[in-house]
């Protein structure tokens, strides 16, 4: 019982050391954010930095999606064109950050981005946390369905007892939940994954904006749309650009641009036709071989994350294992607290906490660095337990013999214990490295361009769901199979040494 109390106390101390600085910084940031001074200087700050960072969820044609332009991957769509014009009028460069839709407002509140434009409805709930511009476009809400079942669905009541998909955090998710109470709501972060679910009969319909639904229907002959006649408040039917709370000068500047765009009717005369052109082009060039550069870039980032995380994870894991075996109770319980806490929380939560939580303190932290830090810290906890078990497997007599020869505790571990333990734990350690390659895919949720992130881009660019996933599965298999063979070769060398 006493040992359990010490463990809880150590865990509390560890968490306090992490949370306390973040809480004080977050409070200070909130106070600064609400001040008039920051609100009047926000536009000046963007101009001084020379760039406007805008977050999008590039799986929402014709609003924002990816296309190959001149052999390069670019973000295109009507929202992207509006963002370009807003940045141009501010006389700064535009930087696009692509991430999951339900992470956009969090990124905005934690100052990872300056603004977001991604078909966002300015609902009263959202207005409490962020500031919106004037509406730049109003669309109709429909449900995408399989054409073979079109005769079954005439209105919203037709979906009673059926599964209806909607993008998590969107207005449509709330509409389905409230106005179709007898339907089962299936929420996912990416629309292309919902379309995959529809085509594979996992859901019976997907609620989305009409232009987006039309884009998917035109590029998938087995899909069509139906009107469920959603009842939507007038001020929630349109889309607006969002800025951090109190950024009045940025909102005012963007409103001038939006007013100019609406006056010239640029959205219907230029932006939507241009988006349709890119969509048609993507449909003609949607062979997987045409997107090999996407997958190659994804492999590059995946290997960078894995190699760096393995390096730092192994070092920190070894240190934690030695700390856990230490006779000093404080050091021992701190190591135990860290290991148990990290192993008891999901990696995805840790990734988002490092990027949005610690990243609120270190605002210049890139998503790639945050992803590497999170995966390194997570891997260290598992490596520590593997190494500890290896050290425990070495007979105590080995340590006693080394000490009797005059070796210090450190030298005994370095020259006698760890080399023998490494042979015992190599298979488990290798398995952790292989697992890390696959788990690194989680960093895609914060916009790191790893293999899974690139797969999602290919899905949205080609309107195909299963084919890009199959290619990705093969790539992951090649990576893990190759690594397993290398590890087996090293193991054989160690056993014959």
TrEMBL record:
<feature type="transmembrane region" description="Helical">
    <location>
        <begin position="466"/>
        <end position="487"/>
    </location>
</feature>
<dbReference type="InterPro" id="IPR035906">
    <property type="entry name" value="MetI-like_sf"/>
</dbReference>
<dbReference type="GO" id="GO:0006865">
    <property type="term" value="P:amino acid transport"/>
</dbReference>
<feature type="transmembrane region" description="Helical">
    <location>
        <begin position="303"/>
        <end position="326"/>
    </location>
</feature>
<keyword id="KW-1003">Cell membrane</keyword>
<dbReference type="InterPro" id="IPR000515">
    <property type="entry name" value="MetI-like"/>
</dbReference>
<dbReference type="GO" id="GO:0022857">
    <property type="term" value="F:transmembrane transporter activity"/>
</dbReference>
<feature type="signal peptide">
    <location>
        <begin position="1"/>
        <end position="28"/>
    </location>
</feature>
<dbReference type="Pfam" id="PF00497">
    <property type="entry name" value="SBP_bac_3"/>
</dbReference>
<dbReference type="GO" id="GO:0043190">
    <property type="term" value="C:ATP-binding cassette (ABC) transporter complex"/>
</dbReference>
<dbReference type="InterPro" id="IPR001638">
    <property type="entry name" value="Solute-binding_3/MltF_N"/>
</dbReference>
<dbReference type="InterPro" id="IPR043429">
    <property type="entry name" value="ArtM/GltK/GlnP/TcyL/YhdX-like"/>
</dbReference>
<keyword id="KW-0812">Transmembrane</keyword>
<keyword id="KW-0732">Signal</keyword>
<feature type="domain" description="ABC transmembrane type-1">
    <location>
        <begin position="299"/>
        <end position="487"/>
    </location>
</feature>
<keyword id="KW-1133">Transmembrane helix</keyword>
<keyword id="KW-0029">Amino-acid transport</keyword>
<dbReference type="InterPro" id="IPR010065">
    <property type="entry name" value="AA_ABC_transptr_permease_3TM"/>
</dbReference>
<dbReference type="Pfam" id="PF00528">
    <property type="entry name" value="BPD_transp_1"/>
</dbReference>
<keyword id="KW-0813">Transport</keyword>
<feature type="transmembrane region" description="Helical">
    <location>
        <begin position="347"/>
        <end position="373"/>
    </location>
</feature>
<comment type="similarity">
    <text>Belongs to the binding-protein-dependent transport system permease family. HisMQ subfamily.</text>
</comment>
<protein>
    <submittedName>
        <fullName>Amino acid ABC transporter</fullName>
    </submittedName>
</protein>
<keyword id="KW-0472">Membrane</keyword>
């Amino acid at each position: 019982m006493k040992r359990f109390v010490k463990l809880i106390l150590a865990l509390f101390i560890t968490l306090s050391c992490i949370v306390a600085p973040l809480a004080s910084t977050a409070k200070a940031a909130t106070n600064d954010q609400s001040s008039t001074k920051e609100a009047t200087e926000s536009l000046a700050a963007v101009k001084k930095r020379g760039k406007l960072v805008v977050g999008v969820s590039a799986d929402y044609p014709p609003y924002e999606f990816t296309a190959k332009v001149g052999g390069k991957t670019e973000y295109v769509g009507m929202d992207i064109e509006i963002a370009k014009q807003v940045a141009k009028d501010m006389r700064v460069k535009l930087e696009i950050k692509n991430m999951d839709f339900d992470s956009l407002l969090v990124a905005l509140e934690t100052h990872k981005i300056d603004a977001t434009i991604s078909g966002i409805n300015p609902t009263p709930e959202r207005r409490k946390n962020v500031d919106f511009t004037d509406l730049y476009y109003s669309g109709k809400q429909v449900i995408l369905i399989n054409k073979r079942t079109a005769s079954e669905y005439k209105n919203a009541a037709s979906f009673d007892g059926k599964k209806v998909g909607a993008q998590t955090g969107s207005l449509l998710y709330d509409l389905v939940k409230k106005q179709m109470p007898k339907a089962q709501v299936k929420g996912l972060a990416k629309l292309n994954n919902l379309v995959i679910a529809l085509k594979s009969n996992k859901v019976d319909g997907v609620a989305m904006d009409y232009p987006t639904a039309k884009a998917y229907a035109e590029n998938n002959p087995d899909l069509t749309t139906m009107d469920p006649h959603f009842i939507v408040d007038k001020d929630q039917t349109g889309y607006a650009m969002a800025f951090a709370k109190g950024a009045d000068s940025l909102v005012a500047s963007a409103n001038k641009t939006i007013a100019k765009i609406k006056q010239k009717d640029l959205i219907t005369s230029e932006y939507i036709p241009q988006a349709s052109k890119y969509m048609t082009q993507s449909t003609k060039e949607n062979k997987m071989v045409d997107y090999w550069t996407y997958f190659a870039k994804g492999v590059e980032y995946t290997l960078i994350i894995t190699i760096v995380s393995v390096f730092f994870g192994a070092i920190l894991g070894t240190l934690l294992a030695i700390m856990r075996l230490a006779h000093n109770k404080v050091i021992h319980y701190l190591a135990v607290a860290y290991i148990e806490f990290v192993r008891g929380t999901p990696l995805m939560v840790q990734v988002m906490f490092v990027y949005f939580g610690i990243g609120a303190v270190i605002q210049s932290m890139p998503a790639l660095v945050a992803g590497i830090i999170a995966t390194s810290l997570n891997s260290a906890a598992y490596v520590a337990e593997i190494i500890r078990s290896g050290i425990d497997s070495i007979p105590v007599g080995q340590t006693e013999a080394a000490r009797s020869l005059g070796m210090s505790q450190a030298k005994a571990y370095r020259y006698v214990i760890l080399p023998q333990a490494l042979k015992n734990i190599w298979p488990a350690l290798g398995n952790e490295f292989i697992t890390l390659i696959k788990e690194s895919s989680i960093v895609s949720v914060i916009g790191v361009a790893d293999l899974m992130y690139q797969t999602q881009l290919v899905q949205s660019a080609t309107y195909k769901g299963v084919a890009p996933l199959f290619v990705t599965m093969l790539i992951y298999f090649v990576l893990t199979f190759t690594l397993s063979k290398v590890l087996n070769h090293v193991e054989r060398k160690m056993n014959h040494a």
